């Protein structure tokens, strides 16, 4: 159920995308404390985005989870995802925002129902 959705204006080739999806899945699962089989990662590359009046490399992310989020967990996730984006896509951490959503079970659908 934890989902990481990342938007970036940097074009992402298939090899880099695969690396990011794999590494982000492992990191999100470990930090939130959920099995990897529950984690979904969406990577949207080449999206028109401007930040601070420029179109340099930038990213925006959202983490949605049923439980498992806290100020400490959020800080760890923010750091590890920023590091991953810096390493794989050369996006400086000062050009990356991330928003965290801790949702109730009834607001998360799966398998034709809610959790």
UniProtKB/TrEMBL annotation:
Zinc-finger recorded as keyword: no
Enzyme class: isomerase
InterPro entries: Macrophage_inhib_fac, Tautomerase/MIF_sf
Subcellular location: Secreted
Record keywords, A-Z: Cytokine, Isomerase, Secreted
This protein's GO CC annotations: extracellular space
EC number, UniProt record: 5.3.2.1, 5.3.3.12
Residues annotated as transmembrane: none
GO molecular function, one term: dopachrome isomerase activity
Superkingdom of source: Eukaryota
Catalytic reaction(s) noted: 3-phenylpyruvate = enol-phenylpyruvate; L-dopachrome = 5,6-dihydroxyindole-2-carboxylate
Family membership noted in the UniProt record: Belongs to the MIF family.
Protein name in UniProt: L-dopachrome isomerase
């Amino acid at each position: 159920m934890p989902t990481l959705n990342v938007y970036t204006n940097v074009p992402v080739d298939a090899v880099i995308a695969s690396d990011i999806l794999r590494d982000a899945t492992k990191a999100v699962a470990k930090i939130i404390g959920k099995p990897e089989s529950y984690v979904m990662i969406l990577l949207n590359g080449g999206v028109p985005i401007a930040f601070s009046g420029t179109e340099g490399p930038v990213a925006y992310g959202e983490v949605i989870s049923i439980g498992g989020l806290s100020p400490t967990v959020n800080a760890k996730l923010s750091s590890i995802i920023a590091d991953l984006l810096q390493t794989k896509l050369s996006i400086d951490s000062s050009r990356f925002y991330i928003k965290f959503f801790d949702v109730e079970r009834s607001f998360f659908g799966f398998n034709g129902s809610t959790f």
